[in-house]
Amino acid sequence: MKKIIRNGTIVTASETYQADLLISDGVISSIGKSIEVEGAEVVDATDRYVFPGGIDPHTHLEMPFGGTVTKDDFETGTIAAAFGGTTSIIDFCLTEKGKPLSEAIKTWHDKSKDKSVIDYSFHLMISEINDKVLDQLPDVINQEGITSFKVFMAYKNVFQADDETLYRTLLAAKEHGALVMVHAENGDVIEYLTKEALAKGQTEPIYHALTRPPEVEGEATGRAAQLTGLASSQLYVVHVSCKEAADKIAEARKKGYDIHGETCPQYLVLDQSYLEKPNFEGAKYVWSPPLREKWNQEALWNALRTGQLETIGSDQCSFDFSGQKDLGRDDFTKIPNGGPMIEDRFSILFSEGVRKGRISLNQFVDITSTKSAKLFGLFPKKGTISIGADADLVIFNPETKRKISADTHHMAVDYNAFEGMEVTGEPETVLVRGDFVIKNKQFVGTPGSGQYLKRAKYGKTTNLADKPMMIQ
Ligand SMILES: [Zn+2]
Fold first, then answer.
1. Structure pTM?
2. Nearest to 10 by CA among 21, 2, 1
3. Which residues surround ligand 1, an ion (CB under 5 A)?
4. What confidence tens digit (pLDDT) does each residue in 181-199 have?
5. Where do the H-state alpha helices sit in 98-242?
């Protein structure tokens, strides 16, 4: 059925204007003034922004970690994402050394296919590089449409890859047209600092932050940047948490290196003192990299405003406080790392960023959607509002005030890291390929309706729908 989004203020990464949108067969088929089509369902968007659906390039749904599994799966996680204005996610597919990559990818397809209510894709973790792995990469890219690889420089003896693996992944990515993503923290030094802390009996959550100081993130970011320059390749640094790391990215970009950086809402509004909350509540804020001293927040906002950091991922990786975070009550190294962030990414960036004058409305769209679509091979099918693009849309009321709380959120987890925070602006209606997933703040979607997205190679664009379009 055709739909008309009537009288909204359409906002893209470059423009803001008032118009109607016509949706036919899941794509935007016309943009114009006073569109009339017989039989079309009309959705009033007066006094609302109409944004391209958010793209969250960094989630961990139903992911095993530290002897447990993240609480939100592809159903609860994507429902929460949709409430928060996100219409596509890219989740991390973990691999095991010595096992075929196709096996890991199949596991992730099985987890997601009947559950996701929004569109989704995968990044592939690279844990080792040898001829066998290299031989499989063309299929991963061309058959699966997975055009980004993740390398962990931290989590020694778990996920951590050595520098040779990182360097050879950068070379392979260059050759085949993929983007390398790094978790940039020096895992060897963290391992040593952690042992030292535990030997001194320092077991509380705050020591999670103190054993992963900003220097180890800055060092690893700088190292990854230099190796990218040496390989003439391309790099995306996930979850930049501090000035040290943001500066390394800016420095490398100045040299002309093809390097991109992401931060997350938690680093923009929460700080290290949260890990000192009494009664083990600090464990709710244990993730890596850790929260930093508060002054870093302004440095991260500045980096977003000036384009040195370009995207915002949630790093959704949720564990219950009771029953999961608990595992580390006597030893901070046993606290599962991660937090529930998928739902509030959009609202926090709008409220703290746009409403407080730190970024413009068009930058907001670029950071939450367009830039990720471009970097990860989804543009212009996703990430913008234009004729022929998928009708992934968020109808957003910029004036609603609400308090973030675990009592009202839609994630499966038993706490919210932003509990009590007041935000202005809220997604009211969310469409994925023209179908309502959220309608007037009610979930109306269907698990399994989300489609797997095969992505274009790095630097390439996707084809638009091959359907007749009207230009009015
Ligand atoms: Zn992550």
1. 0.97
2. 21
3. 315
4. 999 999 999 999 999 999 9
5. 101-112, 131-142, 163-176, 187-199, 206-210, 214-230
